[in-house]
Amino acid sequence: MQMTDSRTIPAPRDKVWAALNDPKILQACIPGCESLEMTSPTEMTAKVTLKVGPVKASFGGKVTLSDIDAPNSYRIAGEGSGGVAGFAKGGALVRLEAEGPDSTILHYTADAQIGGKLAQLGSRLIDSTAQKLAGDFFNSFAAALAPQVPAPQVPAPQVPAPQVPAGAAAPEIPAAEQAEPGEKKGWFKSLFGKADTNVASIAVLAGLGLFAMHQCCLGQTHTAMDFPLCSAQTEI
Fold it and tell me: How far apart are CA 113 and CA 130, in angstroms?
């Protein structure tokens, strides 16, 4: 099985080369990659879980880089075992071509060999799966290197204030919502409440107060608490 293709990566060649040698970026872009560690400048270990048709297997293996010509090209080779599912090994030649200051064309030619149960699935299924995996990898790789464009800020809609026509009267505020000229505080407020609803209470209490002040007048006998309003004053 052999594949040859080219992809345009929206990043400078130096940046693409660095990403091809960054285990974190590669792990995030390789479909089904669970771990990828750089054990030396030219070697990595990987664990990948893939599903090919009805067969799902986890492969553990080693990847080796050779013929390194930074930042232009290198050769990558790897092999892995999937237990009873079979094995896979292969390699690829990767070449970078600068296309302007902010774009790079990545060319690759890859070949692979498989054995075990995977080999029994048929070359058509294996080829289509390999092409899909390669396409998913390069789409994710290009997206990881693409410039991050911030999302546009959408301003909040402005609600215009209601317009009152010239000469028109201002809308009336319901009596229940109008503010009192002044609030009664403390015990006086709790005793009387609103003036317009407690006039009768005020009148009764005022009458009781006058009665207390002038109770001496009722018996025509004054005590030391004289009040000038009394109509009949006599000396004690």
Answer: 11
Contact 122/129 with Cβ under 8 angstroms? no
Q: What is the pLDDT of residues 178-232, one digit of tens each?
A: 545 544 444 444 444 544 444 444 444 444 444 444 444 444 444 444 444 444 4
Looking at the DSSP assignment, which residues form a beta bridge with residue 37? 45
**Euclidean distance between CA atoms 209 and 29, whole angstroms:** 93
Going along the chain from its start, the domains and CATH numbers come out as 2-145 (3.30.530.20), 184-236 (no CATH)
Q: What is the largest CA-CA distance in the chain?
A: 135
- pLDDT for 19-73, tens place per residue? 999 999 999 999 899 999 999 999 999 999 988 888 888 889 999 999 999 999 9
95 CB contacts (<8 Å, ≥6 apart)? 72, 73, 106, 107, 108
Query: Would you call 228 helix, strand, or coil by DSSP?
Result: coil
Do 148 and 82 touch, CB atoms closer than 8 A? no
The strands making up 104-115's β-sheet, listed across from edge to edge, are 2-9, 104-115, 87-98, 73-81, 55-69, 43-52, 33-40
The length of the chain, given as a count of residues: 236
